[in-house]
Amino acid sequence: LPLDKISCISAQQFHASLIVLPPICSIFVWFETDFTMQITDNKNRMEWSRLICSKRLGMERYRSNTTQTRSDFQRDFDRLVFSSPFRRLQNKTQVFPLPGSIFVHNRLTHSLEVSSVGKSLANEVCGMLMPRYEGTPAAEKLTHIVEIVGAACLAHDMGNPPFGHSGERTIATYFSEGDGLSVKPMLTGEEWSDLVNFDGNANSFRLLAHQFRGRREGGLAMTYSSLASIVKYPYSSYDSPIKGKFGFFCSEADCFKKVAQELGLIEKSKGVYARHPLVYLMEAADDICYQVMDLEDAHKLKILSCHDVLHLMLSFFTEERKEKMRGVIRMIDDNNEKVAYMRSCVIGELVGECAKVFVNNEEAILQGSFGGCLIDHIAKLPHDAYAQCSATAWEKIYASSDVVDIELAGNRIISFLLERLLDAVLHPEKNYSRLLLSRVPNQYDTAAPTIYGKIQAVLDHISGMTDVYALDLFRKLNGLSLPAI
Hints:
Helix content is about 55%, strand content about 5%. The protein has 22 helices and five strands. It has a three-stranded antiparallel sheet with strand order 1-3-2. The chain has a two-stranded antiparallel sheet with strand order 4-5.
């Protein structure tokens, strides 16, 4: 049997229960101190020929074999760029408050940079994998992973509410700790779990796949592969083995199951699937960008000094490479350009490291047994440097007064909007409710037949708001702002 097709069961697992296998399926290998049974089972391995699929959600019956200039996956990318939810990312907080005189990253610029890094990472992976699959049905399909990862990276944050990650926490705690507790008796366990664990990842999948009122079936009608490549946690909140992490709401569970079955994603246990392999590349691109770019933004806002940022970024490299980089830095007078130069070097280093990890662990990834993210497995030197950057960010950036202030304001605004809008959908007969619901875009079904559907309509509306819109609505509902007369 080919060695890359063999998985292992420990001696303890073997002795714990009697397993009877056909002789052709098993190989017994004796070690001096252990006994391991190795088994080949292709059912427990995902295949690239299925994982890369151009079938579109909601348009399965309309598929055409006509040759197109653009691939279906390039169409995904273009469709996202021209979508309203993507444009709204321009006015959503990434980490720091939206810029005044100093421009820092918002959700839009972050997503564009993640897509750029993701495509570079996928391109390296593709180049290293192609020789392995030369002459196989998977070879031609592998060329599309750059487009798929690029699209997934663009979409990965589209479901995030305003005011950064604090917006997600505000929504979740409104139900788990706040006035939202009153709706718990009206919901099933699965529905309640979605609310108290509200997550932007699951909301991104809903935004892409859900048929909003007046819209076509299949949402944005993305390809199955692009949809699966944004789901970092391929299970519902109720089935999640990781507290607070999940990839889709119970309202989209059947939709994800259909996608997973078509692509051949391994179902590890009931409702819990292995990741689509390209999720690892999207996740790595996101990890690289937010960690490195947050340092650059902190430098521009004078939260970190140029010396501190350069020291952190140089720590990714050997002494020999450091000397060459210091030589380039000495030729640059502008501190922002020094940081930008080092930022590009660090991103290039991490892209190369993550690509190697993916390719070296391809078999484990296809078997659904790979643990952690790609960054966790890179070489010790860049790994330790990345950990130091992360520790510095938590200590000095995410706890800075500007960041905390936007979280406090966002918490107040979102909690207020949730209170008013939930009361309106639960009691639509009130005069105030009718006035307020008339302001909700028609695509959100505030008159849904179920309580869960009504609540989701409110969450769809609030999570789709920009920071500026949410603040403006908050002021108007409090009588602090009136239209000009």
